[in-house]
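Before relying on records like the one below, remember that each one covers exactly one chain. Contacts with other chains, cofactors or solvent are not represented anywhere in the record.
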Amino acid sequence: MLDLKLASSKKRIRSLAVLTSGGDAPGMNAAIRAVVRYGISRGCQVYGVQKGYNGLFENQMSQLQLSSVANIIQRGGTILKTSRSEEFLKKSGRARCGENLERRGIEALVVIGGDGSFRGAHFFQKETGIPVMGIPGTIDNDIIGTDDTIGYDTAVNTAIEAIDRIRDTASSHDRLFLVEVMGRSSGEIALMTGIGGGAETILVPEHQESIPSVIKTIERGVRRGKTSSIIVVAEGHEAGRTGKIAKLLQKKGYRPKICTLGHIQRGGSPTARDRLLASAFGAAAVAYLCAGKSDSMVGTQENKMGLAPLSQVIHHTKPLDQSGFDLARVLAT
């Protein structure tokens, strides 16, 4: 956790805004709540921006009170809503967003989102001079500078719960299931879900696994008496990836069933871990802004709260931990 008794900046922040951007993630509401309540405790006026950067461009924001964030810590999604903004991609659009904040006397901005959201936040501060602070909120957990992101733990738990149910059917009918989880460019959810769900094989975008290798793993299980198998597949960039894998397995004599978990991984009540993480991140974001820090993202590394410059965050992707694959292979034998 963060020591919130950070030294204050010589220039006191009197007002700030908070928005959620990109894909929603369970725990975002807990982060919003923390930003609002900790901000007010520091004597700040806190504004909520509706629908992400698009709402900032359209000047859709209102001041939030302590009661505005009551009873939201347990809710999934985001009460501020989120959307894509084509206008914010333009320098002129970011300039208009800055003008909207300045007209209201808002002196800083907290952005809850992922890599794309932070890219926009970095250029926004660079061009307008308005301090920004990022809070990592994405189920993919693919952002460097933090061990965990808001929503990741809930998404993994949701996927594992689904696999537990699928395994009952797989065992009852002696079937092979391909379970597709979210993760276009990151296999983090697939890897942790596969380990936690006891999958025979885990297929992710970062590693190319051949069909003969997959079959070898399945057959090894059959030789020791297994009659059903679970393969976890990250969706990847290619549309219909899981379906193509199923067809290749069919050509080898298998009859796989596909279960696509899809957006159920984004929704639902956040786990205790995500609520605690989001609460700490929200308070930390305000504390760091009040201490004069900006153009950064709050994050945890080895259970310690700290900052990562947005200029570094947006240019690097967190690598997948190879030791996780090693563990998964050993446990699947």
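DSSP finds eleven helices and eleven strands in the chain.
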